[in-house]
Design brief:
α4 (88-95) links the parallel β2 and β3 (99-102). The longest helix is centred in the last third of the chain and has 19 residues, at 260-278. 40% of the residues lie in helices and 12% in strands. Strands 1-9-8-5-4-2-3 form a seven-stranded mixed sheet, sandwiched between helices. A three-stranded antiparallel sheet has the order 10-11-12. Strands 6-7 form a two-stranded antiparallel sheet. It folds into two domains: 17-259, Aspartate Aminotransferase, domain 2 (3-Layer(aba) Sandwich), CATH 3.40.640; 261-386, Aspartate Aminotransferase, domain 1 (Alpha-Beta Complex). With 389 residues, it is an alpha/beta fold.
Length: 389
């Protein structure tokens, strides 16, 4: 049999009969929105990461905004995060009227640099919160960040969109700060198609997020219509949002969570093969490695002095060979809104800019076959060899 030439996508969810049957069960139940399945997903997830409770939301973006609001972030405050992230991390603060200050990433990895963070903290700005992002599933230096939080008095909201299930000695990523937010987007280790989960240390913060998640109601629809003490009456106690996760999607999450450990091992195996295949190639630089890495991303860096083609041309060559790729991330400070609002130049955050210009994210997803992994490796190495300076 000849090798497959089918296009290998950058990302692909791994959905089985269990998820299909769970969705059908919800569709046939007569209750589609947030209810029994969403609560089951919340309870199972909280147990998995070792917290008292969790709140299912319709996206990581929604969870970030809920966490920031519940922790008191608003107009007049400043929130620090990295420019090397998806835009939601920063825009969630702006939605609440807070300003954003960017902190450059470390030389060693893609995460916010605690040393540079302290320099900003010493500037005298009114810093209400810091949002560290575990980029690609590589955990941030949380011990240092939490020590700074204690010293300078700010809240820590972990953007753990890439970091499930990253387990450190001190606990799961996302459970270490004042709050943590996870993503179940289609390319994550577990998925609900769209969706997320938010956790917080303080029960009062969890209660506030629960109220704000659904229009500021004092009771959710499941309680109003299905509990033994069901009543049509409800009160609005805050100007909330519409951020709840429906049961149709939560049902997928319940089944995916059961497979989380197996999915994580699949990603680790692909990453290990990539590291083995590319590690000795002088034109390539490996992503940072950590024992708990989730390997949401495998972000390969090119050494431009070793190649005759640019990163963008490298991507085109891989596409010609049937390999899907992506770039994580275009730094926020180079984008029109953030650049103009804060009068920023690309050179203001040199580490973020340098890594962006050299990075390409390779396919890595649970269910990816050994043959597909080897095709990616062959495509990368053949492109390097044909383009060597």
């Amino acid at each position: 049999m000849s090798p497959s030439t089918d296009f290998i996508p950058y990302g692909k969810p791994c959905i089985g009969k269990e998820e299909e049957e769970a969705v059908l069960e919800v569709l046939r139940s007569g209750w589609l929105t947030t209810g029994k399945k969403a609560h089951e997903f919340e309870e199972n997830f909280a147990s998995f990461v070792g917290v008292r409770s969790a709140l299912a939301v319709n996206s990581n973006t929604s969870g970030l905004e809920l966490a920031l609001e519940a922790l008191g972030v608003g107009p007049g405050d400043t929130v620090i995060t990295t420019p090397y992230t998806f835009v939601a991390t920063a825009s969630s603060a702006r939605h609440l009227g807070a300003e954003v200050a960017f902190c450059d990433i470390s030389k060693e990895d893609y995460n916010i640099d605690p040393v540079k963070l302290e320099t900003i903290l010493k500037s005298g700005k009114r810093i209400k919160a810091v949002l560290p992002v575990h980029i690609g599933g590589m955990p941030c230096r949380m011990d240092e960040i939490l020590a700074l939080a204690e010293r300078y008095g700010f809240k820590v909201i972990e953007d753990a969109a890439h970091a499930f299930p990253v387990k450190l000695e001190s606990g799961y990523a996302g459970t270490l700060g004042d709050a943590g937010v996870y993503s179940f987007y289609a390319n994550k280790t577990i998925t609900t198609a769209e969706g997320g989960m938010v956790v917080a240390r303080d029960p009062k913060v969890m209660k506030r997020m629960s109220i704000m998640r659904t229009h500021g109601f004092d009771r959710d629809a499941w309680d109003r219509y299905t509990s033994p003490k069901a009543s049509w009456y409800y009160d609005v106690v805050a100007p909330g949002y519409k951020f709840n996760l429906p049961d149709v999607l939560a049902a997928i999450g319940v089944e995916q969570l059961k497979k989380a450990a197996a999915f994580h091992e699949m990603r680790r195996a692909i990453a290990s093969r990539y590291l083995e295949a590319f590690g000795a190639e002088s034109a390539l630089e490996m992503p940072p490695v950590h024992p708990a890495h989730s390997w949401h991303l495998f972000s390969l860096r090119l050494r431009p002095e070793a190649l005759r083609i640019s990163r963008d041309e490298f991507i085109v060559e891989l596409q010609k060979k049937g390999i899907g790729t992506s770039v994580h991330f275009i730094p926020l400070h180079t984008m029109k809104y953030w650049r103009e609002r804060y009068s920023l130049k690309p050179s203001d955050f040199p580490e973020a800019l340098a890594k962006y210009e050299r990075t390409v994210s390779l396919p890595i997803w649970q269910g990816m076959s050994d043959e597909q992994t080897e095709r990616v490796i062959e495509a990368v190495l053949s492109t390097v060899n044909s383009s060597r300076a």
